[in-house]
Design a protein that fits this description.
alpha/beta; two-stranded antiparallel ribbon; 8 helices; 10 strands
């Protein structure tokens, strides 16, 4: 099976000062998909320009034709299923059915407190995620939805005509814990991981591969519980957060070696960050473009 190669473009550039051309260049380079983060602000980019994910993807849909587009990832931190569903249906329509929703439980970063609330505990994040995903699934597949839950409600929410993609646009569920993996097994068309964050600082690439293998095995077990074949499910690795850090983007050979080791674990898609100078995602543009154009053929 050919390993798909995608990129993630952080929304830090003004649309008419490099933003537009970056998304168009991603399509020209042959990437399968291009994603963006769905945050209000993020880490070292906190005090600089940062634009909204949905408007950015809408603009990207208007200037590309083939590229799949989506979020890596959206979370309940500042989203509500009712309003998010309306935006996604609109975005899926504008793009002609090219949207994938990457979705996760959220974390403790700036988004967690931007609306004035205290950060949710890990248990509350899991509880909310467990309610958020099934409700969003209903909102994207049913014309009218009413629901009263512990965290979210919907009253005769209308979503006509629904998604271009049927029965709805695909979910790529980011999860590593048991509850999240069960949601991925039941609702996800794909599973997303960034590896084991505990290994980022002091782990080795070999330890990371083993940890990701264990995650994939747990996903397979969650799928088996509901009679689903995990091998038929797309598996996406968002790179840049394993102990390898930026080394896979130092050369074509380094990337092919890195991607091949994860392809053996059953991954169907690898996502690499578009280079950003003077950041954790710095990389040589020429090497990055060589990887985009030549790596997929070597991994087929």
């Amino acid at each position: 099976m050919t390993l798909r190669l995608s990129t993630v473009i952080l929304p830090y550039r003004r649309w008419h000062e490099g933003g537009r051309t970056t998304w168009q260049r991603a399509e020209q380079l042959g990437f399968h998909g291009a994603f963006t983060y769905d945050h209000l602000s993020w880490r070292s980019f906190r005090d600089g320009p940062w634009f909204g994910a949905v408007p950015t993807l809408t603009a990207a849909a208007a200037v590309t034709d083939r590229l799949r587009l989506g979020t890596l990832v959206t979370s309940p931190n500042f989203r509500h299923p009712v309003t998010l569903a309306k935006e996604l249906i609109s975005l899926d329509d504008i793009s002609g059915g090219r949207i994938t929703l990457g979705i996760g439980a959220g974390g403790t970063g700036y988004d967690a407190t931007a609306l004035g609330q205290d950060p949710w505990t890990p248990r509350e994040r899991a509880d909310r995620f467990g309610e958020f995903v099934p409700l969003l699934d209903r909102l994207l597949t049913e014309d009218a939805v009413s629901y009263e839950g512990g965290f979210y409600s919907a009253h005769e929410a209308r979503n006509i005509p629904g998604c271009v993609q049927r029965p709805r646009l695909p979910f790529a569920v980011a999860a590593t814990g048991p509850r999240g993996l069960r949601l991925a097994a039941r609702y996800g068309q794909a599973w997303v991981t960034t590896g084991d964050p505990k290994l980022y600082e002091n782990g080795t690439p070999e330890q990371s591969v083993q940890a990701i293998r264990r995650q994939a095995e747990k996903l397979a077990a969650a799928c088996a519980e509901i009679g689903r074949d995990a091998s038929a499910m797309d598996k996406i690795l968002l790179t840049g957060f394993t102990p390898d850090r930026g080394r896979p983007l130092q050369s074509l050979d380094a990337f092919v070696d890195f991607a091949g080791r994860h392809q053996e674990l059953g991954f169907t898609e690898i996502v690499i960050h578009w280079p950003i100078p003077d950041s954790d995602f710095a990389a040589e543009d020429k090497v990055f473009e060589q990887i985009a154009m030549e790596a997929p053929a070597q991994l087929s």
